[in-house]
Design a protein that fits this description.
The chain is α/β, with parallel strands linked by helices. It has three domains: 188 residues, ANL, N-terminal domain (Rossmann fold, 3-Layer(aba) Sandwich), CATH 3.40.50; 78 residues, Luciferase, domain 3; 97 residues, GMP Synthetase, Chain A, domain 3, CATH 3.30.300.30. 31% of the residues lie in helices and 25% in strands. The protein has 15 helices and 24 strands. The longest helix has 17 residues. It binds adenosine monophosphate (AMP). The site of adenosine monophosphate has 18 residues, from strand 13, strand 18 and strand 19.
Length: 501
């Protein structure tokens, strides 16, 4: 069996030159690829010494730090299953994930130790240890004393590497089982289409409890032998300063709108940059064009999800079309289908289904749910609604679950949001369905106005009436200062429904 361990993809990239710098942190410290390899070896040995076996789950609810990256890479290397947990989760939410995943080890920030011990460890028998940014936590101390030698474990492509819990805005959150084969195929495709090389310097500011920061950003850089400018968090001002030393930046749309608020963002500050990538949530066409005016760069938008890594991307060379997510990646098949899973003609909206080595192996301990989410012939139902144009570009027009049914008519919120966003007074909007005695659901707009904009609910509704079929026009429009978003920039429509419902 050839070794499909994802860690080897990275190790191989620098086999001839381990003195290259892999990671530079904001405090000016740096780590070569050779040093990174030894730190990961120590961490892998510490995991084994903690009594864990390959295949065991390692849960980590820790702030982003280079130390937290070592844990992820060590899990890959030793064949354990990494379980990243959003640092925003509260103890009661964690309780669900931990009981469901039954990790052998839980790594937490020191201040969370008592709370975690109180809820979970007693019932699932996990070891709980602290890991903080510095070197003075339990686990970091153990790792510091462990051997710096480690033979990367032999892994098949179908061996489990990571469980990522989906954000689950409706119903129970599901653990997506991601394999080494999924990670390897996706990292190879991305490296190729985005043309990563050793000369790249990636400015890494995304959280690493999610596919975007953990897989996409980290893998592209480390499988190319590139350098990472590692930031523990995103700060727009600091990013603008660091762009001078970077070549690639990846962000969620919110990062780009914040960068546009920085006066230092200019062609000059981006002169070394070759690529800006956006994903995880839709990028407003306006952000795309404003960014191009300011910097001369057209942001490359791509589409992905926890269950499949990256699926499509706008082209590196060729037209990057605002409002679209581009073409299927090499090795990934994408189709748009009707209610009975039949492919639709170009231009028709329908459910997006995908197939490829990037597609996960199922939901952890949910065989029935997994079965429902795949067609009989093996296509995964993404839950997104999309449409291909005649040039082959895919656009995401909404989530299936987000669909509003009003008076028996289907309304895709995205279409109404685009119409609202086109109004000169509007910065951005979210459209939701609220219970309505007559229509079942009433299309409802939630709008962020430009500072000083003069308009009101009646005038917005009046304008939309001339542009949209009557049943699509919001019955009510509410104004807010900002849309509620999660850490990945996704609008939390469930909060809007609760608030305005
Ligand atoms: P997650 O599993 O948390 O990464 O969320 C995946 C979902 O984010 C996808 O199913 C899409 O609904 C959404 N998404 C990701 N990238 C984009 C994008 N570029 N444009 C629109 N939606 C996106």
């Amino acid at each position: 069996m050839s070794n499909s361990n994802m860690y080897l993809e990275m190790a191989r990239a620098v086999a001839d030159d381990s003195d290259r710098v892999a990671i530079e942190t904001e405090d000016g410290a740096s780590l070569t690829y050779g040093e990174l390899d030894r730190e990961v070896a120590r961490t892998a040995n510490a995991l084994l010494e903690a009594g864990l076996q390959p295949g065991d789950r390692v849960a980590a609810q820790i702030h982003k730090s280079v130390g937290s990256l070592f844990v992820y890479l060590a899990c890959l290397r030793v064949g354990m299953v990494y379980l990243p947990l959003n640092t925003a989760y509260q103890t009661s939410e964690l309780d669900y994930f931990l009981r469901d995943a039954e990790p052998g080890l839980i790594l937490v920030e020191p201040e969370k130790l008592d709370a975690i011990n109180a809820v979970s460890s007693a019932s699932i028998g996990a070891t709980v240890m602290t890991l903080a940014g510095g070197t003075d936590s339990d686990f970091a101390k153990r790792a510091a004393q462990a051997s710096a030698q480690f033979d990367t474990r032999l892994c098949g492509a179908s061996d489990l590497a990571v469980i990522i819990y989906t954000s689950g805005t409706t119903g129970r959150s599901k653990g997506a089982m991601v394999t080494h084969g999924n990670l390897v195929s996706n990292s190879q495709a991305l490296k190729q289409v985005w043309q990563f090389t050793r000369d790249d310097v990636l400015l890494h500011t995304l959280p690493i409890f999610h596919v975007h920061g953990l897989f996409v950003a980290t893998h592209c850089a480390l499988t190319s032998g590139a350098r990472i400018l590692w930031n523990n968090r995103f700060n727009a001002q600091s990013v603008v300063r660091q762009l001078e030393n970077a070549t690639v930046f990846m962000g969620v749309p919110t990062y780009y709108t914040r960068l546009l608020g920085e006066s230092g963002l200019s062609r000059e500050s981006c002169r070394q940059m070759r690529l800006f990538i956006s994903g995880s949530a839709p990028l407003l066409a306006e952000t795309h064009s404003q960014f191009e005016q300011r910097t001369g760069h057209r942001i490359l938008e791509r589409y992905g999800m926890s269950e499949a890594g990256m699926i499509t991307s706008n082209p590196y060379e060729g037209e990057r079309r605002a409002g679209t997510v581009g073409f299927p990646l090499p090795g990934v098949e994408v189709r748009v289908v009707d209610e009975v899973d039949q492919s639709l003609p170009v231009g028709d909206k329908g459910a997006i289904q995908i197939k490829g080595e990037n597609v996960f192996s199922g939901y952890w301990r949910m065989p029935e749910r997994t079965k429902q989410e795949f067609t009989a012939d093996g296509w995964f139902r993404t839950g997104d609604i999309g449409v291909f144009d005649s040039d082959g570009y895919l656009s995401i027009v909404g989530r299936a679950k987000d669909l509003i049914i009003t008076g028996g008519y289907n309304v895709y919120p995205k279409e109404i949001e685009l119409a609202l966003d086109e109004l000169p007074q509007v910065i951005e909007s979210a459209v939701i369905g609220l219970p309505h005695a007559d229509f079942g659901e009433a299309v409802t707009g939630v709008v962020v106005l430009r500072p000083g904009a003069e308009t009101d609910e009646a005038s917005i509704i009046g304008t939309l009436k001339s542009r949209l079929a009557g049943y699509k026009v919001p019955k009510r429009v509410y104004f807010v200062d900002a849309l509620p978003r999660n850490a990945m920039g996704k609008v939390q429509k469930n909060l809007l429904r609760e608030h305005f419902g």
